[in-house]
Design a protein that fits this description.
Aminopeptidase, Alpha-Beta Plaits, 5-stranded mixed beta sheet, 16 helices, 25 strands, signal, Peptidase M20
């Protein structure tokens, strides 16, 4: 990314204030003769002008104070040591090898929960998620009828114990920072006897593998002991080499580290858990509570299950109750996007009657449906002022004929509709959804059969997926401002402009719910490729960049949550204590 330096002029409206003044400002307990000045106003959303967000001076001031804080400096120094770099690499490799297909992340979540309690300094009350997927306080416990295997810890803030602290149905304000723990590959959870994926190493000067067989033929692998800890042998030393970019890696003997999820998203998620460890190790004290979560269900047909549970997002209603009262959200798997493409996904099954030698056919019913879908015009094709709206027939497949029969029992069709706006998304859905039945009816009519009879093709909806849409417009929400300014204060990933395009991430859910949202990446890689493929790989990047990215995230989160500086003064939270929602808790 191109770099630019923004200079902000501001007065001392929001200098760090003593803790006693902050508590008094929260509403009570103060001496009536106290002459201390009142806490200044809260930062406000601003404008994005020519692609650049205007940063409230209060946020700019907070960022500089947090980065200069003695404890934050100690965190950065710790992360920059050889021991810190080594620990991050080892953790990344030890976690990414755990097979974690979307909606079956319970083995990954179990390992993370174990490390939270046994290694990362958290006690049981601070681990907010459980092995069975239940999340206390949420009104959404299952998505698509399946448990949700999030892995979350809480850094308790000081706010809940202050006089007249505000809460939503007993839930005090929380700032969420998250990244997902699920992967696309393998699509099927391996047996319990083989829960780990091999991590293979290949010279960057050799061609990338094209088949699973070629990948399996690579002999060089990372080795792990019976406790799942990496063994430091010659291959380990080879893999731990870092490079600034791909060209340097090729010239310097770098290797591809082949394992699904290497970059999407375990290089980010593992760094997020390092951040959690730093909170505990250095006793960092926020004002609002901070939740750090490895989330489930971001990939494939995961349906954003992890975020839907956290935000109480009910997909049949298309609304989020935000029952845990999150007031700001930071995703650690993006590049600063503020617009989020929504989607509706339907999986339909056409089932044929068992009529040997002729009759309504599941293959033809599916083909007729595809043909009817192909004639659909999207809003952006019909009107020049409509945002881009697309659809695809993402997958079609049929069962093999029954033994001794020419009848294909069923065919499955997956249809995906996408747009940045809910209204255009609903418009294209209203046009496409009737074609599912129309294709079936056309095939039945071809054979003189009536829908719903035993001699007719029938249709069944197998699955429905929803990613809610969101268009940010020209508003620089407080989370965006905090992330943008933190990048400058930490001197990393200083984008020239906010991306004007859109993406589809976990952040769709909080943004659509109205919670200030921003995203970034935490890992550092010289090069990565094959995202979502069986041959996903990466080469280790500069660990100092990773440190700066973690420091950036820490700074932005503490701007939002508020922070007790090492000198005893307090930075006030940048957001109000009651989070946004689009539905009240049932």
């Amino acid at each position: 990314m191109k770099k630019t330096v923004l200079t902000f002029r501001f007065n001392s409206l929001w200098s760090a204030v003593p803790a006693a003044v902050l508590l008094s400002a929260c509403g009570g307990g103060g001496d009536s003769e106290n002459t201390a000045p009142p806490v200044s106003k809260m930062p406000q959303p601003t404008q994005i002008t020519n692609g650049v967000p205007v940063v409230d001076p209060l946020i700019a001031s907070a960022a500089e104070k947090i980065v200069a804080d003695a404890k934050i400096q100690a965190v950065a120094a710790d992360l920059n040591t050889p021991a810190g770099e080594k620990a991050r690499f080892n953790q990344h490799m030890e976690l990414v090898r755990i097979a974690s297909p979307s909606r079956y992340e319970y083995r990954m979540a179990a390992e993370i929960h174990k490390r939270m309690l046994n290694e990362w300094g958290f006690n049981l009350s601070e681990v907010k998620t459980s092995a069975d997927g239940y999340l206390s306080g949420s009104d959404v416990q299952q998505v698509d009828g399946l448990p949700v295997y999030n892995a979350c810890v809480e850094i308790k803030g000081s706010y809940s114990s202050s006089p007249n602290a505000q809460s939503y149905r007993g839930q005090y304000p929380k700032v969420l920072i998250e990244s997902h723990i699920d992967v696309v590959n393998p699509e099927v959870l391996p047996p319990e006897t083989a829960p780990y994926l091999p991590i293979r190493l290949q010279s960057l000067t050799e061609p990338v593998v094209k088949t699973p067989q070629q990948l399996a033929a690579i002999d060089a692998q990372l080795q792990f002991d019976s406790n799942g800890r990496i063994i430091e042998d010659a291959n380990y030393a080879l893999a731990r080499q870092w490079f600034a970019n791909e060209a340097q890696a090729k010239a310097g003997g770098g290797v591809r580290i082949y394992v699904p999820g290497y970059s999407d998203a375990m290089s980010n998620t593992s760094s997020l858990f390092t951040l959690a460890q730093m909170f505990k190790k250095y006793k960092l004290q926020p004002v609002y509570d901070v939740w750090i979560c490895g989330t489930s269900g971001e990939e494939g047909k995961g349906n954003l299950a992890g975020m839907k549970q956290l935000y109480g997002f009910e997909q049949d209603l298309g609304t989020g109750s935000n029952p845990l009262n999150f007031v700001a959200n930071f995703g650690s798997e993006g590049g600063g996007s503020v617009n989020f493409t929504g989607s509706y996904r339907f999986e339909m099954k056409f089932k044929a009657p068992a009529i040997p030698g002729g009759g309504p056919n599941a293959v033809e019913a599916m083909a007729a449906t595809i043909a009817k879908i192909a004639d659909v015009k999207t809003p952006s094709e019909l009107r020049s002022d409509a945002l881009k709206t697309t659809y695809t027939v993402g997958q079609s497949s049929c069962e093999a004929p029954l033994p001794g029969s020419d009848v294909v029992p069923s065919c499955t069709l997956l249809v995906d509709m996408r747009s940045e706006r809910t209204d255009t998304l609903n418009e294209v859905r209203a046009t496409i959804e009737p074609t599912f039945v129309a294709g079936m009816t056309a095939e039945n009519n071809r054979w003189g059969q009536t829908d719903g009879t035993q001699q007719a093709v029938s249709i069944e909806q197998m699955w429905y997926g929803l990613r809610p849409a969101f268009v940010n417009g020209d508003t620089a929400n407080v989370a965006l401002q905090a992330g943008w300014q933190a990048a400058r204060s930490a001197d990393v990933d200083k984008a020239e402009k906010v991306p004007s395009g859109s993406t589809s991430l976990n952040d769709n859910v909080p943004a659509n719910t109205g919670v200030p949202t921003y995203n970034w990446s935490l890992g550092s890689n010289a090069v990565v490729a094959g995202t979502h493929a069986f041959w996903e790989w990466g080469t280790k990047g500069d660990p100092a960049v990773e440190t700066k990215r973690i420091q950036r995230a820490l700074t932005a989160v503490l701007i939002a949550s508020g922070y007790h500086l090492a000198d005893g003064s307090v930075i006030e939270p940048a957001v109000s204590p009651i989070g946004a929602r689009t539905r009240e808790v049932n």
